[in-house]
Amino acid sequence: MQPRTHDDGLNPVFCTIVPPHVLDKLSHSGDARLADPARRTLEADGLRRNHRRMTALAAAPATPTAGAVPAKPHRTLYDCENGTSLPGTKVRDEGDKPTSDASVNRAYAGLGATFDLLLSAYGRSSIDGKGLPLIGSVHYGREYNNAFFDGEQMVFGDGDGEIFLDFTYAIDVIAHELAHGLTQYTANLRYEGQSGALNESVSDVFGSLVKQYSLGQSAEQADWLIGAGLLAPRVSGDALRSMKAPGTAYDDDVLGKDPQPASMEEYVETEEDNGGVHINSGIPNRAFYLLATALGGNAWERAGQIWFDVLTGGELTATADFAEFARLTVAAAGSRFGERGEKEAVLKAWSEVGVPTAAE
Asked: Where in the sequence numbering do the catalytic residues fall?
């Protein structure tokens, strides 16, 4: 079966690394140094989300890339100079020497690391499989507390320095946002409810894998944190999310407590954040962590391969729930590795988080 592409009824998605519920909490702070940047970020995100919806629905189908599939990335970095017009001023192209701007260099490296993992581990050239150029813009907005993928490019804010730091600091954040593009070009998961939580979880998975790959870490050595290094010193927390222990990434007077559930028993029913896509993603995140650590070694080699096979296999529906995804991972493990320990480990991982793998 041929993999589904983004042309087959594109679900327009505007994906940010910081969930709306976190920014909303900050926007109600009595401290203007915290509230004002959060409000501006929410407003900017709202405008971008609407823009993404309109441009995606009006877009013409993409023309397939002609010629040989590139084996090297084509990265272009821009500087928004604290404005919000995209992409900004071009500051670094593929093969150029590092600039004096560390944000540009970190973004350039992160885009390259994501390309490298996809190609070396899975034989995929860029997020579309055809060598799609990777575009990033840094210094977006004023004290902008987010990073996002808008369907065409990556964008990074500088943070407010009070709660969030420069969003290029965390390579897994760069890879997370770019992985939304991978999903866009493959399973095209609808960004709401459980399919939206899967969309977010897949990005966390590949974000973590890129981080582990770039650091040469095994599943046992990895911290399994998403966004470690983004939180300013005043914040009581380690990261935005924990795949190992959802719900423990932060517990702060201003940010509140990490709301992610670790199993279906704690599943959060909400109409906010497209049905809790950033919250309930903790459940499939933990399933992947349990699988990767049970298998051991490099997580991208077996656990990551199973997830990649499901994402690109063409059978995952755009409205998939956790159970559908889980069943497909079991099938993918059996198809790729046979009746070895991988399939049993997948079954056990989903069982531990309360997601059924048997067809009803």
From this structure: 177, 278
